TrEMBL record, chains A, B:
Phylogenetic classification of the source organism: unclassified sequences, metagenomes, ecological metagenomes
Pfam family of the protein (one): E1_dh
InterPro entries named among the record's database cross-references: DH_E1 (IPR001017), PDH_E1_Alpha_Subunit (IPR050642), THDP-binding (IPR029061)
Name listed for the protein in its UniProt record: Unannotated protein
Keyword entries, A-Z: Oxidoreductase, Thiamine pyrophosphate
UniProtKB/TrEMBL annotation, chains C, D:
Cited InterPro entries: THDP-binding, Transketo_C/PFOR_II, Transketolase-like_Pyr-bd, Transketolase_C
UniProt KW Oxidoreductase keyword: yes
Assigned keywords, A-Z: Oxidoreductase, Thiamine pyrophosphate
Keyword Oxidoreductase found: yes
Entry protein name: Unannotated protein
A Pfam family per the record: Transketolase_C
Organism field: freshwater metagenome
GO MF annotation terms: oxidoreductase activity
Amino acid sequence: MATITPLLPPAAGKVSDDKASAMAALESLLAIRFFEEAVDGMFARGLMHGTMHLSIGQEAVATGVCAALRQTDFITSTHRGHSHCIAKGADLTRMMAELLAKQTGYCRGRGGSMHIADAKTGNLGANGIVAGGIPIAAGAALAQKLKKTDNVVVSFFGDGATNEGAFHEALNLASVWDLPVIFVCENNKYGMSFSTAKSMKVERISERAAAYAMPGVTVDGNDVDAVYEATKQAVDRARAGQGPTLIECVTYRHKGHSKSDKNLYRTKEEIDFWKTKDPVGKFETLLIEKGILTKEQAEQITENVRNEIRNAITEAQAAPDSDPAELLSSVFRAVN
Amino acid sequence: MATITPLLPPAAGKVSDDKASAMAALESLLAIRFFEEAVDGMFARGLMHGTMHLSIGQEAVATGVCAALRQTDFITSTHRGHSHCIAKGADLTRMMAELLAKQTGYCRGRGGSMHIADAKTGNLGANGIVAGGIPIAAGAALAQKLKKTDNVVVSFFGDGATNEGAFHEALNLASVWDLPVIFVCENNKYGMSFSTAKSMKVERISERAAAYAMPGVTVDGNDVDAVYEATKQAVDRARAGQGPTLIECVTYRHKGHSKSDKNLYRTKEEIDFWKTKDPVGKFETLLIEKGILTKEQAEQITENVRNEIRNAITEAQAAPDSDPAELLSSVFRAVN
Amino acid sequence: MSERVITYAEAIREAIGQAMESDPSVFMLGEDIGVYGGAFGVSGDLYHRFGEERVRDTPISEMGIVGAAVGAALVGMKPIVEIQFSDFTAHAMDQIVNQAAKIHFMLGGELSVPMVLRAPSGSGTGAAAQHSQSLETWFAHVPGLKVVLPSSPMEAKGLLLSAIDDPNPVIVLEHKLLYKTSGHVPEEMYKTPIGVARVLREGKDLTIVATGVMVSRSLEAAAQLSQMGIEATVIDPRTLSPLDMGPINDSISQTGRVMLVQEAPKHVGFIAEIAARISEGPAIYSLTEPVKRLCGMDVPIPYAPQLEKAVVPQLPDIVSGAQDLMRGV
Amino acid sequence: MSERVITYAEAIREAIGQAMESDPSVFMLGEDIGVYGGAFGVSGDLYHRFGEERVRDTPISEMGIVGAAVGAALVGMKPIVEIQFSDFTAHAMDQIVNQAAKIHFMLGGELSVPMVLRAPSGSGTGAAAQHSQSLETWFAHVPGLKVVLPSSPMEAKGLLLSAIDDPNPVIVLEHKLLYKTSGHVPEEMYKTPIGVARVLREGKDLTIVATGVMVSRSLEAAAQLSQMGIEATVIDPRTLSPLDMGPINDSISQTGRVMLVQEAPKHVGFIAEIAARISEGPAIYSLTEPVKRLCGMDVPIPYAPQLEKAVVPQLPDIVSGAQDLMRGV
Ligand SMILES: Cc1ncc(C[n+]2csc(CCOP(=O)(O)OP(=O)(O)O)c2C)c(N)n1
Ligand SMILES: Cc1ncc(C[n+]2csc(CCOP(=O)(O)OP(=O)(O)O)c2C)c(N)n1
Ligand SMILES: [Mg+2]
Ligand SMILES: [Mg+2]
């Protein structure tokens, strides 16, 4: 079992103002980054199977959003879901075990990267279907309303997902039913190879909120504080029964869409430009500048997180492979 | 064969300013009204089968829209499609024959009210699936672009249809591809029993156009002139390659949703209020007031249209029933 | 004491009402199920009894509402979705098949989707090709879904109560022509087990296996056949997934002849699975005649009444099909 | 002269390129088919050859793009839609089934929908349950659709050219594992007829009928079996709808034994239709053993390589299945 300090909201103001909150956020950013760099490497060396979608460059979104959530809140995630999963508090070993197709993985090796879920931390699952999780999030939020809890649900999805009918139907339901759900669009400017400039005519995806008379905001998705603040507001609204919000987080993925991407659709200049806006380095620098952390403390955190990832790999590799014998009996939950 | 004078645009200005255009529009309004009153009656007397959805009260939409179209332009229609079909120029006898399940009907008795299409007048078909015709309209418009014609496509649909994913996906495609298509929403305030007040939070459906950076306008759907003018503008834009428009026509259906509707979801006062805004009477009165027609001429037109409908019924009733023997060979078009 | 007789629609409504009374996590959502009472009148007064929160009218967005049901089920609710016509499930196939059916398995077993999806199925109302399909084959083929086709008021209530109680997604395809048919239905809550076929009539000459509205039609046919001296066993699988072949195999071992009757188009339809299982044995050894399928024609359902009747098996078709089978033609 | 050998993906690309050259109404639309060249590299350089108008990248909206194809086809174009993974057709079932398949019939015959929908199908790439299904059963059951499953580069080109020429909607399910396999493909445009099965190998002992990727696997198995003295006929139906039973019946009349192999889950899968047709005769009279089906397990496709292999028939399964059939177990 390998975990990092759970995210927690600042006592007041920004994440970067509050030492405990800021340190946890830095851990989260680093854990996502190192986890994905590790799996990228293992993939390249043929140690991993299937395909996978990395969020390297997008870590501030999941981190900023989940800093505003409680463990009892829920999320739905995407094919590019490692960051959401980690930020919501998943066990890194079980995640790694899943990618390595182990019996101890979150899905017992049945799901892989695109299907990790974690009931304990309220992660209702990554999803291989673009926009597939959005109506599910609305439904989980409807359940909160019916059960009269004050939990909220966050649905993560990409820019490309907002062109799917599922996005439209789910936002409309959430709107007319005043559901406690926050729609978080990670606009990384491309849906696979197709740029938002070509896939939609709106300037900002948050403009689409108006079609549901729902607040829509656009924030710098590489800025933990900005993401946190927008989420906090939306969460407060949702908990107060005031309904959903659409938050667009503008960000960028440094890596290709998936392992088979030749990056023919974007320029080296564009990628390099965005690397200068790297959310992880940016947040670390900010904390040091603000005097929240010393450089040494930051290095220490970095080293600790690296170790956690190493542990996760070691533990996961030692686990037994997933077991074909139990497949047929696993399709249905047994009727009592 | 029973037809009415084809709709035609006014030489300039409003439909109600131009005698030929106005007379044709009045014929269209009356033909829709009398056709539907006739089938309503036949239905009640058990002479008709299946179900059907009447546009009584909504005649000005199809009439105003189609007055701005050429015969070579296309439409896609809905379950509530008689008005579109008639306004686009269909043969009333073949329509009536279809409802009577005759071999001479538009669909040879295979489709009935919800599936009438007419290749000759560019009617690509009514549709039993709410919003089903909207992506089809986008595709027909894409074909116009690829073939470099200057034809446009109009897609008719209801308020309820705008909550379907198909609406969203189709409007987005039309937007990003600058397609020559006009989306005409007949907002009759209810999708079956569910009011727009409950099914969406926007005040005006035309606000949804902004999600596709597309012009959106709302007009009085009981006013032929208003509908015509908005359509004309949109058609001009579309023919000029400037892309799609969403037009919301606010109107009301006097009858229930379908034959099995008990009208539990709206008040008698509301229905009565809207009957005072009847588009047919309103247009006739306007023409007489403006001196475009005399009362006598209007009565004459009314009588002529009534006769056409009577002819349609007589001719249709005399036709042979549709033939089961040809069914199996009708599923596929023969390969040359 | 005379037995209480209610309609199929009433039986369904009673099941839902009782489930909602006894379990606060049960709720309904669908188009026009509120004050309208449902397109086929199934939800009726439930809206007035349980209120708009638990009998939830939805905008027209099938994918969204099925997805919402999946999400609610994932966090412990027991949604019952009504899709107004089963044909519109075409819009929700992603949520049904790629989400609901797979989540329990694919996500490793911790989560599950205790959801019921009900939809009126079948032809016979002059509603034409987009409102008359029998799509059970699609669902029955998907691992992770249970599929039931109640053929009488009694089954309608009992199967639905089992479906609501099941921790897995269950597709309940009701038949439009059955809604107004009546039969005895106990007032108390009872469950008809999912995965158990029912033998409705026993006869020594041939075995008729029928689904949905074809069950009552086959029973009528069997009565007529009996007048002619032909005694048919009639079996209703009730559950298409999982499928109970036991009674079918047993009966064939007695009769040696089997006729499979479904409304859906013949080609690659559900009933082919029963033929396939027979062909794999052991029942094949008992056959004295080839298997006979009597199915819908491979055409979309037409509007005209005489066309619509022509494309699905009617009572006389079942009678003459059985006679042909007895004569070995 | 040596025969030209190209891959399955190249054969498909060549067919599309030739069709686009010879007919200006042919165009492609789909996600990432432009500069990216398609998720499986099928469209490749077509974008550069024909431009972005005719090789049209789309937003992620499967229902919309299939609907757009239907609309374009209705007014005389010949669209070829690529759905990135066949699993995502779940989003487009309304347009495929309720619109494309029914329009010609339901609207009375004047209009038709000459559209091709291509999609990569099947498991074997570690992409898990939502990216690995074999959904041919759904489409094959729908009147108004033609369904083809090319099993080699040669068929891929020939069947696709027939599909493009067909005035009706044709679903072409390609198999992901075949894209990189090679074989002889003539350079000229040729058509493999839709509705004609192919006998790939003749043997007297048993008949193997296989679809999709199971065809080549069955051929390999037949080669191994031959080493063991068992001679198998291998038949590829190629077209699931319409289905050509002639060669299958003929072969069974010679061998008396039949094994049906598909990747899709067994329950209510396409191959049951072949078993059903056999059970209805005449082939049933030739059987010396019950029919044997070798199919995917009734589970969603899992991610782990060993699990994924375990749930669909592999070469040794086919070999041992045939041996079992020969031994009558
Ligand atoms: C319904 C559906 N369509 C297409 C795909 C293939 N696909 C997977 S990810 C992806 C791009 C998604 O873009 P976006 O929503 O922007 O998310 P990002 O990958 O950029 O994080 C595509 C097309 C899919 N998985 N599901
Ligand atoms: C996909 C789909 N869902 C539901 C229905 C059932 N239905 C038919 S018409 C209708 C209401 C449509 O409302 P709207 O779009 O406003 O059109 P109107 O009937 O008011 O003209 C409904 C729910 C359908 N035919 N198709
Ligand atoms: Mg993106
Ligand atoms: Mg309406």
